[in-house]
User: Fold these one by one.
Assistant:
Number 1:
Amino acid sequence: MESIRSKVSYISGLIDGLKIDESTNEGKIFLKILDVLESMAEEMENMSEAQKYTEDYMDAIDENLAYLQNDLYDEDYEAYRGDIDESFEEIRCPNCNDIVYVDKDMLGQRENVTCPNCHTNISIGDTDAGGDNKK
Ligand SMILES: [Zn+2]
């Protein structure tokens, strides 16, 4: 942007230095063109500043959005994990090693569950395969 301004200044100096006669048709046109160029240089400077401001603003919004997303997802995840831990028991299928989540209410009512992965019957009483056995 600085270069446009300096180029316009250079032309302005050139017109002054060449002693262009302002009373001639050519002189009038040169001065009009110079006037337009100066206006355009100024206008573009303003636009550039406005764009810079918008970019900074967008960056700030982007950052805030990222914080919000992190917070939301963290809370969702914690809530989800908390739910699982509270009402479900992790049981490892002895056949395929898949983790099966069993509703704790079901533990008191049933002696075994069917693995959804390999359809093996897993004995719930087998505490060796329970969720407390984490490595
Ligand atoms: Zn299985």
Number 2:
Amino acid sequence: MRILLAPMEGVVDHLMRDMLTRVGGFDLCVTEFVRIVDQKLPHKTFYRLCPELHEGGKTPSGVPVRVQLLGQHPQWLAENALTAVELGSPGVDLNFGCPAKTVNKSKGGAVLLQYTELLHDIVKTVREAVPAHLPVTAKIRLGYEDKSLAVDNAIAIDEAGASELVVHARTKTEGYRPPAYWDWIKKIRAHTQLPVIANGEIWSYDDARRCQEMSGCSDVMIGRGALAMPNLALHIRDNQPPMSWPELAQLLIDYSGYEIYGDKGRYYPNRLKQWCGYLKRQYPQAEVLFDNIRRLQKSDEIVAVLQQSAAAAK
Ligand SMILES: Cc1cc2nc3c(=O)[nH]c(=O)nc-3n(C[C@H](O)[C@H](O)[C@H](O)COP(=O)(O)O)c2cc1C
């Protein structure tokens, strides 16, 4: 079984990837999307979104990180895909799932799921540009407004030569509302030879097993669940119990050490408050923590609150 860390724009950046892959259990990460419109982007854009490219395309704990591209023009996507792999990305992933309005207006992300032929052309053109030994992968939802093209889209992506496919088992219209329709992944698998990775609504060991059973996939990708329980990958793999609150508080304190990369010192306070939103699903203490730090703007004040919270729980 492989477990992939999901791309999450504005949330799972290189620091979060480092943190979560240090905790362990992940086989591969995918970056936030690089938006491609009508030009070849400078190297610095790729390095900014994926600083791991400076280190052979791996997190400090050695987990490969694949660059994700989003766009609608096959040729521009292909040229930028080539740049990504030349800079050291272990393949490229194509985003056909993003529901954001701004992105869909300029015809990128999930909106493309309405245009099966275009999906095919994009994957084929990118596949031809990227050296054959490096994977070209795609990430889709089940459709834009309905699921009528789910199987056709997967077949088109397969025939265009993709190496594997992640399926987030919901349409764009279904957004992030439970449930995820894992049984639809099985339908897709019945029509393609493409290795498929199941994604959506996996929050626990039991969810992962049910998803595997209903989708027929052994590999899964996890996103929000890994933020709610940072050792979710190990929990799924080995049934390791969820990290305790004191352990988690220490992890959150360690994250403050990354401040040096932050933008004028606001990175840590902002990201920690955002992270609390995910953590409270698994840890009631995160709700209290959020109330205690919501007005704080300085990292050392937040760390002091975390230290108290960890000490109180011991
Ligand atoms: C805040 C946020 C940002 C996301 N950004 C991306 C992205 O950049 N690329 C992408 O393919 N999917 C993106 N997704 C979708 C996730 O990768 C994933 O498919 C989705 O969250 C379902 O998986 P989960 O239930 O495990 O979270 C994003 C999701 C969220 C919640």
